Structure formats: structure tokens, C-alpha cells
Q: What sequence folds into this?
């Protein structure tokens, strides 16, 4: 993100140089979508200096009326739900810059404008006042996000190949939501062997929308693999950085605010400083007698690898650990006519031509439909479907295709042409850094 000091700068950039102070803030549908509106944030370098924060909340191209100040403060409060706000104080302005306990609005404004950081070195006079007045430690704790687990509902047993539901309720008691993408996964760890299995909860939720002020309920149905070893598994919550190079590094993983609590069994602390896992204090017994429902295509798969850190390279290492050349994207070691890249993109087995197909073509209500089930965690592949009425060179076009569904797990398209025959083809391309 790029930070600007004056909210009117963003309004004028997005709308027009004559944009009024009543210009609309971004909403849920625009947040974190990569647009300019989602990537312009704020840096207030005179927090609490006066009613306008020494010019921050002013219409800098014209006269500023009292209502303009109100408008811009309201605008910034809405904007900073989804973009970064940070800055520093610049001079004392008692009593406004005091702690709430002494009649100031420091606590309220930090919360209202969703502050993620403040300069600890400036202004020292204001910072020292907060120390003396007793709110500095609370401000330190609440800057940015501060997540904690409130409650959970856990299934106690399941059989391999079955599903089990999970519900977690989390609360953000900080000032802001996370502004970078975050991974969220349940880790099942066998209590005897230590073997780990992973379910990517962040496939269906985005922690950047965990705003302060309300609880966030995460519900998921997880599909156990048919070959999952029986036994007892600890249930652990992991919130890693999803960047593959940073995944699993403790300094880049979120630690919950209540991570020092003790599990319900009175065993070990919730937070594991070596793994950055949070032990939820519940176990899952995998046996042959449970009667949980079978999985369907929308359930989150439990895998023997983390889908959060999945890339073509990690997939290649798993499937071709001793023969890297066989794992090149254009290779076809099982001679089934599908390149490794396609096998990766649709989660089929690159070493077995007899594997289940994840590409399905069908006629449905008179329409030609193609369904592609994407590989878990695959984010470095571009999927493109083109249609042709006759297979002739130059006849292939994406304009002959309507996308019906395109999400993290599924691409479903329809052939548009009204000709008696038609063809669809899938093209996959690897995004390289």
C-alpha cells in the first residue's frame, strides 16, 4: 500500500480534483481487491495536535468548513477498516491528546481510525504523558490487530474418509484488522508418531476482514483422507504468513492474545514457540467405528502437506523427490497425455495414468459445460478456457465461453455458441516470480 497524509488526497485521486469531502469511502466489496482504491492508505503525522490534526482533516484546495472536518474524519474512520493507518504525534494538545482516563480522546481516536502503528520516538512529550496517565501499555497492546480465541466446537472422533465439523469463534480486541494476507489452518498432529496433517481454513475466509468490535465465527467441514492413520490427534491452530518463503517462520506467524492460557486438559500452554502452533486443548480420535458423513466437493481437504505454502516447486518436491528432471512442467512421466503442470493445476497424480480425472465435460439443460476442479492451494497457475465451433485454426476464442464459477476450488464454464457442435479447451500457465 501507499500511504498519504491527507484523506482529501485519496478522494481527489480516485474521484476528481474537485472531489468534495463527502466522497464515499471504500466498502467491503472493494477492500483488498488490488485496485488503487484498496491500496491507498493513510499516515497521520500530527495525531491529536488539534481538531484537524494540524491540517490532516482539511480540504487543502479551498476553505475548510467545520462540516468538512467532520466529513473527513468520518471518511478516514470508514476507510481505515480496510487500509493501513499509522503515524505519530507532533505536539502536546491537552486535554485532547490525553488518555481517556484523564478526559482525553487518545484511546477513542486510536480505535476509531484503526491505528496499526505509531512512532515511539516522537513526540516524546505526548508519549510520556500516556505513560504517566496509565494508558501507554494498553495502546501498545491494541495497536494493529490483537486476536484471541473465544470458544470452539470440536468433534471428538471420525473415521478415515469421513468428515468432521469445526467451529471457532475469534475476537479482535486490537484497533485494526490485519492488512496483509494471512494463512489460517488447522493442524492435526498424531500424538504417537508426530505426523501432521493440514486443513487450509483460509481457503474460505479472509482474516483481513476480522475487524474489531465484533466476534468472528469460523465454521468449516473438513474431509479426512481415506488413508489417514488411526489414532489420537491434537488439534492445533496455525496462522502463518502465506508467502512460501515466510511460511512457518515464527516471527511472521500470528500469536493469539490468549496464547498463554492453559488447555482444557490442564496440559501445556496453548502457544508453541517452536512451531507457532496454538494447541486448542482438544483431540480427535480417528478410528474405524465413527459414523460421520462422507465428504463432498465443497469440504476442505485434510492433506499431508500445507496448501497454504503450495507452489509448483513444493508439489514437484513431493512427487519427484529423487528425479527432479521428471518433474519439469512440460514433462509427462506417466505418459497419460497430461503435462505435469496440468496435473498440478487439477490435482491429479503425475505418476499414475489411472488416476481420477478432475476435468469433467457434460451437457446440462442443453448447454455444453466444462468443470475443472483446482488443486488445493494452487495460486500460481492461470486457468483459461477457450471455445471453438469447428477446431479450425484461428477459431478459438475466450469470447465463446461464459464463466459460471471461478473460485479457489472450482472453475466451471459454458460454451456460448448455438452451433450444432462445439469444443472447449483448457490452457494452464505457470506464474513465475
A:
Amino acid at each position: 500500500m501507499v500511504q498519504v497524509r491527507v484523506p482529501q488526497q485519496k478522494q481527489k485521486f480516485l474521484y476528481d480534483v474537485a472531489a468534495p469531502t463527502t466522497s464515499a469511502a471504500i466498502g467491503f466489496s472493494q477492500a483488498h481487491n488490488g485496485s488503487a482504491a484498496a491500496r491507498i492508505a493513510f499516515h497521520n503525522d500530527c495525531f491529536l495536535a488539534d481538531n484537524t490534526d494540524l491540517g490532516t482533516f482539511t480540504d487543502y484546495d479551498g476553505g475548510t468548513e467545520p462540516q468538512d472536518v467532520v466529513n473527513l474524519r468520518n471518511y478516514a474512520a470508514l476507510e481505515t477498516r480496510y487500509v493501513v493507518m499509522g503515524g505519530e504525534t507532533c505536539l502536546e494538545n491537552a486535554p485532547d491528546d490525553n488518555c481517556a482516563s484523564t478526559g482525553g480522546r487518545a484511546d477513542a481516536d486510536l480505535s476509531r481510525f484503526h491505528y496499526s502503528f505509531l512512532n515511539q520516538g516522537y513526540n516524546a512529550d505526548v508519549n510520556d504523558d500516556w505513560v504517566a496517565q496509565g494508558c501507554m501499555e494498553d495502546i501498545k497492546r491494541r495497536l494493529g490487530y490483537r486476536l484471541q480465541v473465544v470458544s470452539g466446537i470440536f468433534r471428538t472422533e471420525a473415521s478415515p474418509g469421513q468428515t468432521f465439523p469445526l467451529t471457532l469463534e475469534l475476537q479482535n480486541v486490537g484497533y485494526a484488522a490485519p492488512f496483509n494476507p494471512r494463512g489460517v489452518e488447522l493442524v492435526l498432529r498424531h500424538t504417537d508418531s508426530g505426523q501432521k496433517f493440514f486443513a487450509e481454513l483460509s481457503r474460505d475466509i479472509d482474516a483481513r476482514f476480522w475487524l474489531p468490535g465484533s466476534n468472528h465465527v469460523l465454521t468449516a467441514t473438513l474431509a479426512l483422507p481415506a488413508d489417514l492413520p488411526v489414532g489420537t490427534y491434537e488439534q492445533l491452530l496455525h496462522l502463518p504468513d502465506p508467502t512460501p518463503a515466510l511460511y512457518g517462520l515464527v516471527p511472521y506467524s500470528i500469536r493469539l492474545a490468549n496464547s498463554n492460557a492453559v488447555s482444557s486438559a490442564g496440559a501445556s500452554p496453548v502457544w508453541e514457540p517452536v512451531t507457532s502452533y496454538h494447541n486448542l486443548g482438544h483431540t480427535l480420535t480417528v478410528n474405524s467405528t465413527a459414523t460421520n458423513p462422507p465428504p463432498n466437493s465443497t469440504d476442505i481437504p485434510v492433506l499431508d502437506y500445507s496448501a497454504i505454502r503450495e507452489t509448483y516447486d513444493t508439489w514437484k518436491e513431493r512427487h519427484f523427490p529423487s528425479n527432479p528432471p521428471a518433474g519439469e512442467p512440460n514433462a509427462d512421466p506417466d505418459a497419460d497425455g497430461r503435462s505435469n503442470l496440468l496435473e498440478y493445476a487439477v490435482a491429479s497424480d503425475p505418476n499414475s495414468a489411472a488416476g481420477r480425472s478432475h476435468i469433467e465435460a457434460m451437457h446440462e439443460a442443453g448447454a455444453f459445460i466444462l468443470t475443472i476442479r483446482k488443486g488445493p492451494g494452487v495460486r500460481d497457475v492461470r486457468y483459461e478456457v477457450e471455445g471453438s465451433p469447428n477446431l479450425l485454426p484461428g477459431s478459438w476464442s475466450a469470447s465463446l465461453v461464459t464463466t459460471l464459477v471461478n473460485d479457489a476450488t472450482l472453475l466451471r464454464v459454458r460454451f456460448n455458441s448455438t452451433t450444432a457442435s462445439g469444443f472447449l479447451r483448457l490452457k494452464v500457465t505457470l506464474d513465475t516470480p
